[in-house]
Amino acid sequence: MKKGRVYSLVELSLLAALISVTGFIKIPTGFPGSEFQLSAPVAVAITAVFGFKRYIIAGVISSLLMFSMGIHNILNIEVAFVFRLVAGGLVALLGTATLVLLFAGPLGTMAARYILSLTLGVPFLSLVIPAIPGMIYTAVAVIPLVKMFQYVRRTGGISVGKSI
């Protein structure tokens, strides 16, 4: 089924909104200074199912939206873009094999923390060690999210249940 321009625009907008909303969901990991952000596995899953180009465009829209509302600052955007380029780039270059999906998020997080350490002039390990629980959560959550997005993409967003 060929998608129209309106369908593609709505799909892209929904992906951007999903990235933004899941960026707000932060789950504490039990270690001081660390948390799991649900947008990381969502980002990898979006790339795997909808493609790198749509993910990058949705990510730019999300970052612009968050920045314009004063929720994100330049450092947040820097971290997000490094993550997007590394995690999304790995999926785009290496494909959607399970191992690629499992490691794309954690490697994207490590790269983003490395660039942030250079920007802030702080030791890399002081930024990456607290992120390890979140990287594990990302690896665990990505495969179920990919399956969910594949189902949504396959059904075309059409409701398959009874309407009330």
From TrEMBL:
Transmembrane parts of this sequence:
12-31, 43-67, 79-104, 124-146
Report keywords, A-Z: Membrane, Transmembrane, Transmembrane helix
List the protein's name.
BioX protein
